[in-house]
Design a protein that fits this description.
263 residues, alpha/beta, Nucleotidyltransferase, domain 5, six-stranded mixed beta sheet, 9 helices
Length: 263
């Protein structure tokens, strides 16, 4: 496409010379010439550079100053156009970020994932918790329905509190508590909640955390917390609290298997 613009406008030909196209085309004005060039799919940038060189040559010649020979106009324009293109920085290629995945904890440490869900229409909330070992094997899972549609951040705080409590009930000594709410995970780490609405829940977590010999908190994006999220969604339609030992509900099994396959 780039070369065709020059060829169609000023390319020398054996029979007609440099301006051979003028024997075939007549233009009422410069605007019509531009339209004729662009309608043929030529580069507007290259055409503009070529026109500038023609105009510059004309002015230099009129003032009897050194100028490019007419036969060299094509090559001069082409060279300047290539130079201009090379100087334009190419946009950075955005590489797709790999989706986060669940990562098993180190040996002798358990990972407790939690999540919360809200149904404003049903005026309910749900909590999901799953505990797994360093091999990705399920130790226990839990769903619990709450008879109130709390704010999302409050439900996440409740889920975090229930996760730490659930682990202590099962005698887990060393654990990583992981969720996809950055606000809650940061609050758990800092233990500085100010006047936020979920401060009492974070304080409760601190009480339960004293029952562990080692406890830390980790944030992961939703794609790495799919099992806990699925459990929380299931809690919205399942009354009360249900616990599975060394298992998960069938609704969530495929997600657990996917996490295992990705280890």
């Amino acid at each position: 496409m780039e070369a065709s613009c020059v060829d169609s406008v000023v390319s020398p030909c054996l029979t007609g010379g440099l301006w051979c196209f003028r024997s075939r085309e007549v233009f009422a004005d410069f605007k019509e010439l531009c339209r004729w060039v662009l309608e043929r799919g030529n580069s507007p940038d290259l055409f503009a550079i070529l026109v500038w060189h023609i105009w510059h040559q004309r002015n230099q010649s009129r003032l009897q100053q050194p100028c490019c020979l007419t036969k060299d106009l094509k090559h001069e324009a082409q060279a300047r156009w290539e130079e201009m293109r090379a100087s334009i920085p190419r946009p950075n290629q955005v590489r797709p970020q790999p989706k986060p995945k669940w990562i098993a904890p180190p040996p002798n440490i358990y990972k407790i994932n939690f999540d919360g869900a809200v149904s404003a229409e049903e005026n309910k909330a749900g909590v999901g918790v799953i505990i797994r070992d360093c091999n990705g094997e399920v130790i226990a899972s839990l769903i619990q329905q709450l008879e109130q549609a709390f704010q999302p951040v409050e439900v996440e705080a409740i889920a975090a509190c229930r996760a730490v409590e659930f682990g202590s009930e099962l005698g887990v000594g060393c654990a990583i508590v992981e969720g996809d709410s950055e606000v809650i995970v940061k609050a758990l780490r800092n233990k500085d909640n100010g006047l936020v609405s979920f401060a009492p829940l974070i304080n409760d977590v601190s009480l339960f955390s004293s029952l562990y010999s080692e406890l830390s908190y980790s944030h992961i994006r939703r794609d790495g917390n799919k099992v806990a999220h699925s459990l929380a969604r299931l809690a919205l339609i399942t009354p009360d609290c249900t616990v599975w030992m060394e298992d998960v509900p069938s609704h969530t099994l495929r997600l657990v298997q996917a996490d295992l396959a990705a280890l």
